[in-house]
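Translate structure to sequence.
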C-alpha cells in the first residue's frame, strides 16, 4: 500500500519505515522580525550638557503612498522617513524635550499630521513636500483634535518617569502598517478623517 501526501500533512517513507509530517507547509512568520511601517524604534536617552532627552526613530511607512517627514534633531530640518545618504539608508532621529510631554501623564503622543491641499486640486493629503499640509510626524503633549485644516492620528506614545530628567521610558504602539486616509467635509461641519491599514 502506498500512502500519498494529503491536506495538512506530508508523508515520507524509506526502507527503515515512514514518517508523517503534520507541520504547516506554509508557516506564518515566526515573529523574529517585528518591524512594520510606522513602528517607533530605537528609542533611547540622550544626555548633552547635563540635559537628558529622549530620541526616537519611526520606521518608514506611507499615508496615501506618501512618505511622511519628521524633524531630524541632528540636522535641525524636517526630512523624509526613508532618507538615503550616499546610497545608504539614513533614517532621521527625532528628539523629545520636556515641552513635548503631558505634565500629568508624562506621555508624548507621536502623531501623524496630514492636511488637505489648499489650492486646486484639493487633494488630501497634500502631496507637495514643501507644503505645511504635507504629512509629518510630531511628538506632542496632547492628543490634538481634528479640524478643517489637519487630521491627526496618534501612531504611538512614549511615556517617561520624569519629563525634565527622564531615566526610563515606555513605548506603546497604535499603528502597525501603512495607511490609506480619506477626508470628508460636508457643509459647515468639521472635516472627518478616516484611516485604513494597507
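Result:
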Amino acid at each position: 500500500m502506498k500512502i500519498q501526501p494529503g491536506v495538512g500533512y506530508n508523508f515520507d517513507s524509506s526502507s527503515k519505515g515512514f514518517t508523517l509530517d503534520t507541520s504547516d507547509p506554509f508557516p506564518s512568520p515566526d515573529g523574529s522580525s517585528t518591524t512594520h511601517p510606522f513602528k517607533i524604534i530605537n528609542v533611547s536617552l540622550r544626555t548633552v550638557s547635563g540635559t537628558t532627552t529622549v530620541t526616537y526613530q519611526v520606521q518608514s511607512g506611507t499615508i496615501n503612498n506618501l512618505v511622511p517627514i519628521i524633524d531630524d534633531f541632528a540636522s535641525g530640518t524636517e526630512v523624509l522617513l526613508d532618507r538615503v545618504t550616499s546610497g545608504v539608508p539614513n533614517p532621521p532621529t527625532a528628539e523629545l524635550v520636556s515641552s513635548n510631554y503631558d505634565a500629568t501623564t508624562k506621555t508624548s503622543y507621536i502623531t501623524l499630521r496630514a492636511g488637505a491641499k489648499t489650492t486646486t486640486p484639493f487633494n488630501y493629503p497634500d502631496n507637495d513636500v514643501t507644503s505645511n499640509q504635507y504629512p509629518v510626524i510630531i511628538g506632542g503633549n496632547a492628543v490634538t483634535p481634528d479640524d478643517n485644516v489637519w487630521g491627526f492620528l496618534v501612531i504611538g506614545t512614549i511615556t517617561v518617569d520624569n519629563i525634565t530628567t527622564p531615566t526610563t521610558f515606555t513605548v506603546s504602539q497604535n499603528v502597525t502598517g501603512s495607511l490609506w486616509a480619506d477626508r470628508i467635509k460636508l457643509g459647515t461641519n468639521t472635516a472627518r478623517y478616516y484611516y485604513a491599514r494597507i
